[in-house]
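Hey Z.,

So I finally got round to the DQA thing we talked about over coffee. Here's the setup:
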Amino acid sequence: MKILVINGPNINMLGIREPGIYGKQTFADLLALLEDTAKELGVEMEQYQSNHEGDLVDKIQEAYQRFDGIVINPAAYTHTSVAILDALKAVGIPAVEVHISNVDAREPFRQVSYAGLYCEKTIKGQGLDGYRQAMVYLKERYALTL
Ligand code: DQA
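And the result:
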């Protein structure tokens, strides 16, 4: 099984950006957690982070027929990007949306998620562990299809 983990803008600033909201763990800590989780689950994992909407769309398109699951934190593009939603719909790969913070308890503009209209599941406010939970969900889902 192959899982693609996609992170949008400013996720590379984890540990530096608003630690009161996103915690003190760094982007490097997140990458280590993704690698460890992939090993534990016995799945292949590729991760991609970009601050550019079109690059995120390109990466989702490239996943077509190459990946069995997508974990995506579109970050600020969650609340604005129809293009990311359409790309997810185009490739048709099972996807889980992750937000490190509890977006429900934040500003009203964070209550809307375009990508979430496609994703099977949304994990919010669980910190970096949300990514692990999303990978576990996709692995279990994939096992059911075998
Ligand atoms: C975020 C929440 C978004 O509203 C915000 O723009 C982010 C990160 C999260 O992981 O909590 O950049 O997706």
